[in-house]
Amino acid sequence: MADPTPGTPTLKIGDLARKTGKSLRALRLYEELGLLRPARSGGGFRLYAVDQVARVYWISKLQDMGFTLPQIQGLIQATQGSATGPEAMQGLRELFRARLQTTRDQVERLLQLERDLSESLAYLEGCRSCHEDHDVEACASCDSVHAEEPTPSLVAGVHLGPVDRPVRVRLPHDDSSTP
């Protein structure tokens, strides 16, 4: 970045860190990787244009999406190396479309995990009323509380030893139970 135009608002690195919640070390690393380009004052202080706050937030969002700093560096280089603006935006669009699908897949896996946890917690609540004095392994075949219920997969995996009878397990994405 060239020297700022006189009268243009700038931020010192500490001000940028406070506004963005980033550490000084992170901001220096961003500069080292070419993600930020501060100007220098006559005394050698880093001076950031106010629009660099948006750049730091953008970098943070990309990191939240799973991009590494070298990948962000490559993204910036590819965008700047595009022949036209529409070409650069097409590359971003494709990248973001793929990341959106990955995010949706992650959300679906997390929703399934939430269902599994809720089902397991509901099942385990029933175990509070069990008054039988037996070993942990016997819980897999306990008829006192869960006579007709299949054991949720998150609970069935806890059983350590053999049981007298097969355990009916409810697996994720499966409405039936397996012996």
* Mean of residue pLDDT values: 83
Strand content: 5-15%
Query: Total domains, how many?
Result: 2
Low-pLDDT regions: none
- Give the C-alpha Rg: 28 Å
Helix content bin: 40-55%
Distance between termini? 67 Å
Number of strands: 6
Largest sheet: 3 strands, antiparallel
Taken in chain order, the helices and strands follow as EHHEEHHHEHEE
Structural class: mainly alpha
Outline the fold blueprint.
Blueprint lengths: L9 E3 H8 L3 H9 L6 E2 L5 E4 L2 H13 L4 H12 L4 H42 L24 E2 H4 L12 E2 L6 E2 L1
Would you write up a description of this structure?
This protein is mainly alpha-helical and 179 residues long. It has 2 domains: 1-66, Multidrug-efflux Transporter Regulator, Chain: A, Domain 2 (Orthogonal Bundle), CATH 1.10.1660.10; 107-178, no CATH class. It is built from 6 helices and 6 strands. It has helices at residues 13-20, 24-32, 52-64, 69-80, 85-126, 153-156, and strands spanning 10-12, 39-40, 46-49, 151-152, 169-170, 177-178. The strands form 2 sheets. The protein has a 3-stranded antiparallel beta sheet. A hairpin with a 6-residue loop joins strand 5 and strand 6. Helix 4 packs antiparallel against helix 5. The termini are far apart.
